[in-house]
């Protein structure tokens, strides 16, 4: 759903936020104390190979994704190309922030023009959808700038945890986290590119029909004016203006898709940490383990729970935005589906766009829910501990697993679990019935449009 259808910064730059100096002074984070554990005997599970932050860390896995995002003005963090997370920093004095501000200003302008158009011509579902799309893009930009301010410390804390766990936990998947990130990103971005291309093709075919109807040979001009009526109904059209507006629309479309992609990747990384810890627990199922071993395992679980809560505190706004906008656009797409659609290309585009939206929403829900699912898996192992091995540490571990709600949330309004998927589905049905009743008058039957240039 979309509208109508280099940094080089000095390391001593003022106001820069770098966790590296805090790391040297031993004052990085309250988690630092928790992450230090006493020397333990050789673990039961063979440890992974020596931890290499330039290849094995979250920072290394997210590096190409963040670089891609920064091409579209997202996550303006400095030091992404460095070998580890200690070089990351955020500063307001960077070209990335300037680029983000320019794009934000462009999206804000599009939103203002859309409001003006609704004020003078009235509100309908199509205009409201365009408005929501650009407002979502603005809110996304703000949330990711806020995340960029916290990302250096978050990435470094995560890297410390990974380094600590490498000595005890083995890699469960043969595919590295970095490879999985690249595969997921390639799939999501490729589908998004196809969806946007189908949207452009559908709109261009409409522009051809409109140009023929008006006897106008400038199909490109017709395309821009029909796609962005909120802009060119208030100002004169020229090609350079059309290109700028279209670029802003493309950037907004990327940010809308990147929100879901980012949540999927973070969920994969968190669930992977729990999965590695769970593999260590499953390997000793039925065996008698000393109390120190259970104390170490409980400490690891507690560190992961603390990390999950910290991550959630930074991205819960993004989670809420993702679910709210996806819910809205699914309802709107369903509403539009009740109208006849002219042309095979338009029908193919609509079906693909709607299917992609549903698949993306389901992927975000299931991947985010996997964090909660993995956090519950130690319970069966703890229940099966024999009486001779049962200790206070096992009891404390079991109590935390069964009572602590470890999951990503939407600003604490809801927790992302598997049951949420059914809740969202029920909500969609309820809202759809309401929309059908209150918006039936506003819907235009496409088959009855006699003017090919009519814009809703």
TrEMBL record:
GO terms for molecular function: sweet taste receptor activity. It is found in: Cell membrane. One of its GO terms (cellular component) is plasma membrane. The keyword Transmembrane helix applies. The chain crosses the membrane at residues 97-116, 128-149, 183-204, 243-271, 315-336, 348-369. It comes from the Eukaryota. Residues 1-27 are annotated as: Disordered. One of its GO terms (biological process) is signal transduction. Keywords: Cell membrane, Membrane, Receptor, Transducer, Transmembrane, Transmembrane helix. It is a multi-pass membrane protein. The keyword Transmembrane helix applies. Belongs to the insect chemoreceptor superfamily. Gustatory receptor (GR) family. Gr5a subfamily. Plays a role in the sugar gustatory response. This is Gustatory receptor. It comes from Ooceraea biroi (Clonal raider ant).
């Amino acid at each position: 759903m979309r509208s109508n259808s280099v940094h080089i910064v000095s390391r001593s730059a003022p106001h820069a936020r770098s966790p590296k100096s805090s790391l040297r002074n031993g004052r990085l984070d309250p988690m630092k104390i928790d992450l230090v554990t006493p020397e333990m005997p050789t673990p039961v599970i063979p440890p992974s190979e020596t931890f290499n932050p330039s290849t094995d860390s979250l920072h290394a896995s997210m590096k190409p994704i963040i670089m891609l995002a920064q091409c579209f003005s997202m996550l303006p963090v400095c030091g992404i190309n460095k070998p580890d997370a200690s070089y990351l920093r955020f500063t307001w004095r960077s070209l990335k922030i300037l680029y983000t501000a320019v794009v934000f200003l462009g999206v804000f302008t599009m939103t203002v023009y859309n409001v003006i158009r609704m004020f003078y011509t009235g509100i309908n579902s199509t205009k409201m959808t365009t408005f929501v799309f650009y407002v979502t893009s603005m809110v996304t930009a703000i949330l990711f700038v806020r995340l960029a301010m916290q990302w250096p410390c978050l990435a470094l804390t995560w890297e410390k945890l990974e380094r600590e766990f490498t000595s005890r936990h083995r890699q469960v998947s043969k595919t590295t986290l970095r490879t999985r990130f690249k595969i997921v990103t390639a799939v999501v971005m490729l589908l998004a590119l196809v969806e946007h291309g189908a949207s452009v093709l559908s709109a261009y075919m409409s522009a051809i029909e409109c140009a023929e109807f008006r006897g106008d040979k400038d199909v490109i001009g017709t395309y821009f004016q029909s796609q962005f009526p909120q802009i060119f109904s208030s100002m004169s059209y020229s090609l350079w203006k059309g290109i700028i507006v279209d670029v802003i629309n493309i950037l907004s479309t990327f940010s809308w898709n990147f929100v879901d992609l980012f949540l999927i990747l973070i969920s994969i990384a968190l669930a992977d940490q729990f999965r590695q810890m769970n593999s260590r627990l499953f390997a000793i199922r039925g065996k008698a383990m000393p109390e120190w071993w259970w104390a170490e395992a409980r400490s690891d679980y507690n560190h992961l729970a603390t990390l999950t809560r910290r991550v959630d505190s930074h991205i819960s706004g993004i989670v809420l935005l993702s679910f709210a906008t996806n819910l809205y656009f699914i309802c709107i797409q369903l509403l539009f589906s009740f109208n006849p659609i002219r042309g095979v290309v338009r029908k193919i585009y609509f079906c693909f766009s709607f299917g992609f939206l549903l698949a993306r929403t389901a992927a975000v829900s299931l991947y985010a829910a996997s964090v909660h699912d993995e956090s519950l898996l130690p319970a069966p192992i703890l229940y099966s501990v024999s009486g001779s091995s049962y200790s206070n540490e096992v009891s404390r571990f079991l109590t935390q697993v069964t009572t602590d709600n470890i999951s990503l949330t939407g600003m604490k309004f809801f927790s992302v679990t598997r049951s949420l998927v059914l809740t969202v589905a029920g909500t969609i049905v309820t809202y759809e019935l309401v929309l059908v009743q209150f918006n039936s008058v506003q819907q235009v039957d496409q088959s009855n449009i006699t003017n090919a240039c009519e814009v809703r």
